[in-house]
């Protein structure tokens, strides 16, 4: 399967030290390699360069640029919470009035135990909820206590919501946007 | 796997801001007072034991391609079967059973919206189950990694 590089890539093609534009195909290969994580070698960016047909400088420049642009949110260890013992994972969904969802979403996201917070569309009549947040914890009582804390803090006592604990992870892995999966 | 103080330090300090330079693990080793070789060995071991899924970048979903959270309501006794079918579809990177009528929740990714829509349509036809499509409208959380509360762990 041949995938054409998205405009996002071409926009970020960095200039090499010599000033010539970096191969878009090389950057696409780099993205595909990066989604698997850094190779654990003493010179990981050199290894990535070898695998994607770029130079080490081009690889580091591209990564830095993608970071600066916010295409890469963070770079480091991606922890599997479940293995560590964070087995209670609740997706809490809320039906918030449209004119308040932005402010409440931002406030929820600042709570230290909230690990994700998104606004999503309602799908009536089945699905009335427009705000999603995730709470990761070591056990259910602790997660429910944190939820109570959140409800009190944000004054959400009368806001319709549902708590969806996860019971099984069938898959949990990094995103593969340009890979062949 | 038993994590010692150095493993914990690696996790606490390097979920973000791993340096981008020719020898990043040498930088890390200086910070932790161990050798570069040991840093690489520890990271490999954390990866092998599934404590860490990878060391590397986390891409911003909304900008790194198309992705969508979807949910289906599967009959309880067919949960494993339906989950396996979902996992066989291309681009599925998260798939969880949750306590709700909509009991399977998965994230599908694709290079662009058109491909994503095709894949979801195909899967929906295959499963013949009600499916919720819940694209992100706005994200409020800035991903800084996750502060581990070591004391609370079992």
Describe what this molecule looks like in 3D:
The complex is a heterodimer of chains A (about 180) and B (about 150). Chain A has about 180 residues and is of the alpha+beta class. Chain A has 2 domains: about 5-70; about 80-165, Alpha-Beta Plaits (2-Layer Sandwich). Chain A contains 7 helices and 5 strands. Chain A has helices spanning about 5-10, 25-35, 45-50, 55-70, 80-85, 100-110, 140-155, and strands at about 70-80, 90-95, 115-120, 130-135, 160-170. The longest helix of chain A has 15 residues, at about 140-155. The N and C termini of chain A lie close together (about 10 Å). Chain B has about 150 residues and is α+β, with helices and mostly antiparallel strands. Chain B has 2 domains: about 5-50; about 65-135, Alpha-Beta Plaits (2-Layer Sandwich). Chain B is about 35% helix and about 25% strand. Chain B is built from 5 helices and 6 strands. In chain B, strands 3-4-2-5 form a 4-stranded antiparallel beta sheet. In chain B, strand 3 (about 90-100) and strand 4 (about 105-110) form a beta hairpin. In chain B, helix 2 (about 25-30) packs across helix 3 (about 35-50). Chain B starts with a helix and ends in a 15-residue tail after the last strand. Classes of the chains: A alpha+beta (about 180), B alpha+beta (about 150). Chains A and B meet through helix 3, helix 4, strand 1, helix 5 and helix 6 of A and helix 2, helix 3, strand 1, strand 2 and helix 4 of B.
Tell me the count of domains of chain B.
2
Average pLDDT metric of chain A = 87
Number of helices of chain B: 5
Instruction: Say how many strands of chain B there are.
Output: 6
Key descriptive features of the protein:
heterodimer; A: about 180 residues; alpha+beta; Alpha-Beta Plaits; 2 domains; four-stranded antiparallel beta sheet; 7 helices; 5 strands; about 40% helix; elongated; disordered N terminus; B: about 150 residues; 5 helices; 6 strands; about 25% strand; lyase activity (chain B); AsnC_trans_reg2 (chain B); siroheme decarboxylase (chain B); EC 4.1.1.111 (chain B)
